[in-house]
Structures are given as C-alpha cells and as structure tokens.
C-alpha cells in the first residue's frame, strides 16, 4: 500500500496542480502537445521540424542535446553546444523548448536557454539530480523509469517538490515487460491512477512506449481518453536519416494528420488543443 506522501500522492489528494511552461498550462482543460526530434542535429534540422510541428498545433518543441544512449558508441547528442541552436529556434518561432538534463552541472547553462527540463527514464532514480532540480523554479518533465513502480515514480516527484520546486509534470513512456514486439509496454492504467490519486499533471510519450510509428496515433487518442494532460511525440522530417530513434519518428505529414484527429476527438473528453493550430 502507498504511504501518504507529501503533496503528491495521498488518499485525500490535493486539487490538481497546474504547471505552466511559457504561456501554456498543464493540468487544465487544455491539451499540450510537445513535438520534435529525438535529438537536435543542426539548426536547419530543428528549424525545419519546429516550423512544421508548430503549424500543426504543437505548443512545445522537444529536442535532446545530451542523449542517454544504451550503446556508448551511438550518437551522444551535441552536448551544451546545442544550447544556442535551441535558443535561436525557440526565439525565431516563439515555442518553449524541452530538453533532457542528465547532470546537475548542466543546470546553469540550461537555465539560460531551456524552458522545461526533462529527466529521462534512466535518471528517474538519480536523486542527486532530482534534489538539485528541486532548488530551481523551472518546470520539470519527469519520465517514468522503465522498470519503476508508480509509487517510486511519484516519490521521485516528491524529491523535486520537497526542495521547493512544485512544477513537476509526469511522463508515462512505457515500461519494460516480457513483450518484445513493442519497444516498451504503455501503461495507460498508470495515467488514470495518477490523475485520480495525485495532484500532478501527466503526459504520455507514445513514441518511446511503442517504438512503432503506426501505433502512435491510436495510442495518443487512448492516452487522452485515459486522462492525460498532453503528449510528447518524436517527429522528424527525414526519419531514415535521424541520428537517434528515427525508426519511431512520425513524419511531418503523419504528425499533422494526427493533430487533426486529436483536435476532433479532444472535445469528447472535455479537452481542447491550444490556439495556434489556426495561425
Ligand atoms: C527521449 O525522450 O528521447 C528519451 C531518451 O526518452 P526516455 O528517457 O523515456 O527513454
Ligand atoms: Mn528518443
């Protein structure tokens, strides 16, 4: 059984907490769709993808610069030298950005350029990092460890919140199971449970949860039905040339189609997509 935890998870939960990222809010009636490449590869790449996903209605741009790859010989990201790229693209398009932070020593550089700090699945148990992120006021996107219990994940959020930073959004990105066809197993029950039992907003990452682009649209809609406050989706203009996770990226066109479908379905669940679909 869950022990009552400060703020985040208890039987008489606090009212849902809204977390703001730039002009947008997670946890209200508005759905936030975060989209972009797995990795930032160049300014041209990020700008091309950002322009298109913004036009399709994404409200936040994603793009990793520090990548936690399983194989040390795989592309590790541009590192901090990617920060000016992220900054330029964000200024040019007015889209807030989320980047994964993998080490407390990156915090200072990130504070200048990044609106939303992502803690990746592999770092959900990195309490030194979580404690440091508790001392700043920037919103944190806390991904679920791929073998983490819901209770451990909510406790990880408490590590951040107990330091004073209340701005945590959870992200269900699939857990490891015996199944091998999909990259992970999307735990939609966890999404509904989090909404019913904690005050934290939550988004779903159907890209890492499935690893299969054709499954992403249906699971995105299912995530909305389960109560998710938003989605984070990998999109690439040339998936076959991507330096990481190209196999699971939606094309620009597939993402646009999905956004039209989300716009159609969201009101059934009392949700709206944010404005600039029409800009
Ligand atoms: C990512 O978002 O690109 C990523 C590495 O995700 P995760 O930490 O969920 O594996
Ligand atoms: Mn990825």
Protein architecture, described:
- The protein has helices spanning 43-56, 83-93, 107-113, 127-133, 150-162, 188-197, 206-210, 216-226, 252-265, and strands at 19-21, 24-26, 30-36, 60-62, 97-100, 116-119, 140-143, 168-172, 202-204, 230-234, 272-273.
- The protein is globular.
- Strand 7 (140-143), helix 5 and strand 8 (168-172) form a beta-alpha-beta unit.
- 33% of the residues lie in helices and 15% in strands.
- It has 279 residues and is an alpha/beta fold.
- Bound molecules: phosphoenolpyruvate and manganese (II) ion (MN).
- Residues 38, 208, 234, 244-245 line the site of manganese (II) ion.
- Phosphoenolpyruvate binds at residues 38, 64, 68, 120-122, 143, 173, 208.
Topology:
Layout: E1 19-21, E2 24-26, E3 30-36, H1 43-56, E4 60-62, H2 83-93, E5 97-100, H3 107-113, E6 116-119, H4 127-133, E7 140-143, H5 150-162, E8 168-172, H6 188-197, E9 202-204, H7 206-210, H8 216-226, E10 230-234, H9 252-265, E11 272-273
Parallel strand pairs: 3-4, 3-10, 3-11, 4-5, 5-6, 6-7, 7-8, 8-9, 9-10
Antiparallel strand pairs: 1-2
Residues 38, 208, 234, 244-245 line the site of manganese (II) ion (MN).
C-alpha Rg (nearest Å): 17 Å
Question: What is the chains' assembly state?
Answer: single chain
- Percent helix, as a range, is 25-40%
Low-confidence stretches: 1-7
Structural class: alpha/beta
Beta-strand level of the residues, as a percent range? 15-25%
Report the span from N to C terminus.
48 Å
Hetero groups: phosphoenolpyruvate, manganese (II) ion
Number of strands: 11
The largest sheet is: 8 strands, parallel, barrel
**Major sheet strand order:** 3-4-5-6-7-8-9-10
Q: N-to-C SSE series?
A: EEEHEHEHEHEHEHEHHEHE
Count of separate DSSP helical elements = 9
Q: Would you tell me the overall average pLDDT?
A: 94
The dominant shape is globular
């Amino acid at each position: 059984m869950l022990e009552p935890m400060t703020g985040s998870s208890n039987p008489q939960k606090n009212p849902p907490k809204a977390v703001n990222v730039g002009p947008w809010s997670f946890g209200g009636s508005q759905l936030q769709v975060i989209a972009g490449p797995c990795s930032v590869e160049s300014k041209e790449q990020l700008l091309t993808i950002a322009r298109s996903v913004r036009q399709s209605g994404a409200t936040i741009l994603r793009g990793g610069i520090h990548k936690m790859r399983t194989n040390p010989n795989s592309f590790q990201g541009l590192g901090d030298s990617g920060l000016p790229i992220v900054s330029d693209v964000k200024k040019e398009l007015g889209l807030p950005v989320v980047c994964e932070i993998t080490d407390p020593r990156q915090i200072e550089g990130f504070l200048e350029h990044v609106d939303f700090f992502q803690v990746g699945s592999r770092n959900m148990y990195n309490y030194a990092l979580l404690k440091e992120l508790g001392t700043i006021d920037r919103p944190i996107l806390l991904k679920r460890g791929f073998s983490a219990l819901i209770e451990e994940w909510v406790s990880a959020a408490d590590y951040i919140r107990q330091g004073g930073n209340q701005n945590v959004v959870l992200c269900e990105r699939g857990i490891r199971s015996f199944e091998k066809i999909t990259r992970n197993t999307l735990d939609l029950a966890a999404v509904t449970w989090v909404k019913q039992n904690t005050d934290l907003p939550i988004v779903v990452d159907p890209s890492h949860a499935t690893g299969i682009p054709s499954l992403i649209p249906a699971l995105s809609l299912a995530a909305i039905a389960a109560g998710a406050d938003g989605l984070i989706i990998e999109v690439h203009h040339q998936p076959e040339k991507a330096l990481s996770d190209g196999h699971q990226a939606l094309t620009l066109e597939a993402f646009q189609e999905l956004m039209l479908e989300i716009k159609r379905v969201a009101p059934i669940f009392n949700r709206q997509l944010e404005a600039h679909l029409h800009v």
